[in-house]
Amino acid sequence: ELTGHQHYMYKEMLEQPEKAAAVIRGRLDDRFATARLNGLNLTPKELRAFRRVKILGCGSAYYVGQIGAQLIEDLARIPADAEAASEFRYRNPIIEPDTLYVVVSQSGETADTAFAVSEIKRKGGTVVGVVNAVGSTIAREVHGGIYLHAGPEIAVASTKALTNMAMAFGMLALHLGRLRDLSFADGERILTALKRIPDQIQAVLDDEAHIIDLAKRLAKTQNAFYIGRVRQYPVAREGAQKLKEISYVHAEAYPTSELKHGPLALIDPSMMTVAVVPDDELTDRNVGAVQQVLARGGEVIAITHASVDLQGLDVARIDVPKSEPELDPILLIIPTQLLAYHAALTLGYDIDKPRNLAKSVTVE
Ligand code: BG6
User: What does the UniProt keyword field contain (predicted)?
Assistant: First the structure.
């Protein structure tokens, strides 16, 4: 099956443009500048009645849930947050009737996430799924949901499923937004941007040769920080997770804003920092943080946009295509996959089956 590709992870990364197109196919409604998500099995009236959204998942699915929560707050102005399903199940969570619960899972079999579904249902809550595996346990248990159409994902490190989870949240946020106060013009802005993402992912993948050079530098480091602010903090978390999962380089994610409140103490020439610096209202602050890292002798790789002026700072940059600010995280994540993959490849590890990890954890 691995025709021409060394690893499933690589094959699955390359499939992303095609799969990202598949998840939006037939679901974007130009006439009303919204997304059609009939699989949710919830009427507009029911959807309008929710006063909060709670997103649950594990690992990468949890980090994408954080991206989803921000998207929902941005576009629909409904308070939303994400939590690790593995924690939720052990803390006697309060289940509210006017909260929409959203569980996120590639396999649909993760025990912690499935348990969260049962607990929410037992307490009378409404739970929908963002799930890849059709007919899986979670897909069968939820009230409705959004299938990801990413096809089977074999590599432990999730790539295409994760991207499609983020695309699905883009559609869910658009849908909820257009039921509330998101204008037609803003709906169109998001819808148009969603349609462009598959080609833009391809553009990032086409930059592979350049990213390989930087991954080789990452492979040499003992420790790495991934930093990102607000919408980009989940990008940093996912990037750090990928690097540690498959290359075993110690990596931690921090919100860029927190750097000065502690982690800056660890910056020295042996520390590599991957900084997510998008072109947005916080660019200057993010560039300032990069400056602080450099001033302490740290090395920096910036995942950024071509329009960002890094003020001549001595950093390696990876420019990704610009989307709308709300959707930028989807594209800013892609280089972190290539960085982790090529770092692991350089170090000669078993990329598809990292030590101590399973593709889906179906036991407690
Ligand atoms: C973890 C896997 O155990 O489960 C991660 O190692 C994955 O790669 C997570 O993101 C969630 O899996 P799923 O199938 O529920 O999305």
Answer: Aminotransferase, Glutamine amidotransferase, Repeat, Transferase
Confidence tier at 208 by pLDDT (50, 70, 90) = very high
Please state the φ and ψ torsions of residue 130, each to the nearest 5 degrees. -115, 95
pLDDT for position 350 = 83
pLDDT at 364 exceeding the cut of 90: no
Q: Report whether residue 107 contacts ligand 1, using a CB cutoff of 6 Å.
A: yes
Report the complex ipTM: 0.91
The DSSP code sequence of 35-72 is: E--GGG---HHHHHH--EEEEEESTHHHHHHHHHHHHH
The C-alpha atoms of residue 91 and residue 242 are separated, in whole angstroms, by: 27
Quick one: average pLDDT of 166-182?
A: 98
Q: How far is the CA of 358 from the centre of ligand 1 (A)?
A: 8
User: How far is residue 231's CA from residue 283's CA, in Å, rounded to a whole number?
Assistant: 12
Decide if 82 contacts 57 (C-beta within 8 A).
Answer: yes
Band of the pLDDT at 305, cuts 50, 70, 90? Answer: very high
Ligand 1 site-directed mutation target among 106, 112, 146, 243, most atoms within 8 Å of CB:
106
Which residues, including other chains, have CB under 8 Å from residue 142's CB and lie 6 or more apart? 103, 117, 127, 128, 129, 131
SS3 content of the chain, % helix, strand, coil (to 5): 50, 15, 35
Alpha-carbon distance of 52 to 328, in angstroms, equals: 24
Nearest to 168 by CA among 110, 124, 106, 90: 106
Closest ligand 1 atom to Cα of 357? 6
The burial of 60, by beta-carbon neighbours within 10 Å (0-12 exposed, 13-18 middle, 19 or more buried), is given as buried
Name the pLDDT band for 363 (thresholds 50, 70, 90).
confident
Residue 95: is it exposed, middle or buried by C-beta count within 10 angstroms (0-12/13-18/19+)? middle
Contact in structure between 172 and 35 (CB atoms under 8 Å): yes
- Compute how many other C-beta atoms are within 10 angstroms of the C-beta atom of residue 39: 14
Q: How far is CA 68 from CA 23, 170, 179, 317, in A?
A: 15, 7, 17, 26
H helices present in 248-312, as ranges: 283-295
**pLDDT attached to residue 3:** 55
Instruction: Give the nearest ligand 1 atom to 158 CA.
Output: 8
